Fold each of these.
Amino acid sequence: MGMYGFWREGYIYAKDFLPFWHILFLAIFILALYGCFISFRRDKYVLAFGIIWLVGFALASGIKGPLNDTFKLLFEHTLLKGMRDTHKFVAMLTFSYSILGALGLAKIEKDLENKN
């Protein structure tokens, strides 16, 4: 969920420089959730971004995640064999965060303009 899909030792990550990265991620996640819930009834494509997020989360978790048996099955018997490193699926998460977060931010901005 925090958009880290590559965990090899010896590399320097943004989280090494930002000890408060959890707070920044929480802001992004809350905006995306808000955008999803606010726009769900009005925009039908929001469901698609929710599904993209769920699939991306499941696949980015890899063999250490909650769907490890399913991931192993897909890895051994489908084209996912070329996707050895799960960080490739984090792109699905970031894509969903960007669209849903933008919807949430747009709603907040609209509400603030109407208040003034």
Note: The two ends are 35 Å apart (CA to CA).
Amino acid sequence: MRYTSTRDHSVNVSFEQALTSGYAPGGGLFVPAEFNLAKFSTEDLRRWKALSYAELAYEIMRRFISVDEISDGDLRQIFADSYSDFEREEIVPVVPLKLDDENSKVYVSELFHGPTYCFKDLGMKACVNLLAYFGFKRKRRTTLVVSTTGDTGPAAMHAVCGLPEKVKPYLNILVHFPKGQISKLQRRQLTCIDSPNARVVAFEGGGDDMDIPIKRILLASHSGDNVLCGINSYNIGRPLTQMVHFVWTYLRVAEREHLEVGDSVQMVDIVLPTGELSV
């Protein structure tokens, strides 16, 4: 799988290059160059029904990462490690809601059983583990530059500080948060971690005021031995790894409702609560 830019289709890079860059050159976002290579078939979905969450993550992400970049064994281990500190064995419980209308069926995917109690844990730990893998492989130091309004920062901080000792020298993190604008719990999650490879900075202003400065810094630092990398949602690793819980939810609902997996008639609608819409 190769990756290109939303702003320049002449860009053609590996998964490692896309992941460790954050933004594409020129400020675009990295996307798969050929989406057809990553399509899931009905047979795939049926084969994945009995998999654990980590096994499903491996199967999905294998479509987006060449075996030449990460071997099967290493990729399996990365995802096994990425959910090892979740409080629930199924990682994402899919729970039915009791409704007055017996003809309606609603399920809720609980995305808050990670170490920082936020859905960001589902993608962040895996993304950080992938970055750590490449940093250790290249013996190259990478510094993650993060801006947070409360969720991303703690998830990223926990993921980095929980890395094995052998890879910690190759991955540092610097988190920026708006002073007085995150919850007390989130502030403590950021500021009460004692780790030599983690730093936290409070800034004056709104939650998104660091976005443009960080983008400028990252776009000016695409080369060198000490790599700066953004780990907010524009990084291709984030949407790819967070995609897993959508497939997981579909499979669990199909199982509970005795639906034929892949049936285009028996549809499952997924409603996604979301926040700010950036232009």
Note: Residues 93 and 110 are 5 Å apart (CA to CA).
Amino acid sequence: MRRFLLPAIGIAVVAATFVWFLPKVADYREVWDVLEELSWPWALALLAASAFNLVTFAPPWQVALPGLRFLRALEVTQASTALSLVVPGGAAAGAGASWGMLRGWAFPRREITRAITLVSLWNQFLNLFYPVVALALLTAVGEETALLTTTAFVGIVVLVVVVTGFLLALVNDRLAHEVGDQAARIANWARAKLKRGPVTWGGPSFERFRRSAGDLLKRRWHALTLASLVGSMSVFVVLLVALRALGVPASEVTTTEAFAAWALVRLLASVPITPGGIGVVEVGLTTALVGFGGNNAGVVAAVLVWRFLTMVPTIAYGLIAAATWRRHRPAPATDPLLE
């Protein structure tokens, strides 16, 4: 039952989104009329924003895994993201793809584990941080929403707890061991509620991670933060360009409001109901943008175009990279920052 229940729920969510919810918001014929009015300059702007988003996948991995070249980093990120979208298992399938490709290119196991952990952690830190920033921006201009306020409050609490635990784990081996044991207890309690087995990591895993990650983070935490920030914000840039290109001007939805909607949905989509949040993202983002004042047809058109440009190129390139990565066996480059 558990094996088939989640996929069934995911299929139901996707079907309800595209067959019932979005047509209720705006008839697809009206959406098509909006798309037909897209001008060539705006089309080129969308393609440029999409290309920029694509190339920003690689730098966080280059920072977290010294010696990884840009093109190989791009292959890893696109392949893992594509597989997480189309293969059962989602994020686990993506992480497994990253591991397999990097091991095939002769990177050490400990460095791969460190890179996967750091990139994932920094993404989650930003997911929790963005709603807080969005709430502050809306409050500054005299707007706020109950859902965003609640989400931002939860984000602050979780962010403080996670970051505090992370920093404590980097202080010394004893604290790392204690933080790891406590985290494992919490994870095991949650998994038990879901009738899942205990985790395989704990205090010793955190000790090993501290020894592996500490030196790199001392030199590169700022670079990892900046690269992760640019990578995630490039997704918002594509959304903002799509809104403006498809008839949702700033007089209807301001940049601050668009950012707030995106930040909220980005956090909600981190709950793995469907691969890539398909259905969940469209419903949440459309509801928020229309609620802020966007016209229905323009919002639906912009959301669909945004999702297409941020998913389809990645899936296409990623599946090709996943099929051909064995032909590329790069020699790890030297890293002057760690010498």
Note: The chain is about 80% helix and 0% strand.
